[in-house]
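Q: How would the structure tokens look for this protein?
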Amino acid sequence: MEIASYCQRHILVIPQALGALSDVSKVVSYNGSSLYFKDLKQDLLDVEFYTNQLCLVFVEEGSETLTGWQNNQIKLTEGQGILLCQGQNLHSDFVKSTQDLKAWLVFFDKALIERFLLSIAVSVNRPNTPTGSFLTVDHTAVSGFFRQLSSYLDHEIRLDNMLDCKLTELLHVLYAVCGEELRALLQMSELALPAKRNLYRLLEQDHVLKLSVSDLAKLSGRSLSGFQRDFKQLYTQSPKQWLVKKRMEYANRLVSQGQMCITNVALEVGYNNVSHFIKAYKSTFGETPKQQALKS
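A: Here is the predicted structure in token form.
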């Protein structure tokens, strides 16, 4: 399985992929910046996405949980938002309790960010505060900004020609609320560093068992040594040991189901050589796949 093919099928690159989603509508797009509105009425779990631009997610109603690459969870509820640095991989989970999820997605063009950074560099001369790859926002001033946007749309006021001005205003509001943390995040976003993916979420999927350890490292956004280090911290064993164990567990399920021939089972779990697969299977379970299939 090619890594690029896997990524294309399993990662939502935003904002580019949002046009294909029925529950997300584009409000306006101008000069590289864009504004979307998300209205989810059904549960939507484990959606992995990659931010191709600086992105602000702001929840108007309901709640949403985002999980980062270190398996850290951020729950956003009504009136809360998160500003995500460009180049981030996260997982989104929405479980409907009583309310639908209504949220704004704002994407900022690089040129707009550069102009904003120049404007605050002139007026403010303070050192940057260290920050992570995201910034949580919970302030009535930000809520008021989005209420104003909603009012414009309710009165059918077009936002095309004012989008640059409104997003610049939004950045100034965020700067008033967040201070130098915002500047640091925007400068980090300019670097567009490669994204690390959440190992736990990535590796719990059966599809990845076809890949080699080096391919898994690339897919996770890490060097091979970085992948092995992070992996051992999470699973307390080497990636190779884990991969063989998981392949055999998956193979055992497929053999017990009896819907695939042994050759296809071997290919499905990442073995191109059937005899090597049979040897590994017997070493693990004490019998060959065929013997197991006859018992099922």
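The CA atoms of residues 226 and 277 lie 29 Å apart.

Residues 3-191 form a domain with the Jelly Rolls fold (CATH 2.60.120.10).

Upvote if useful.
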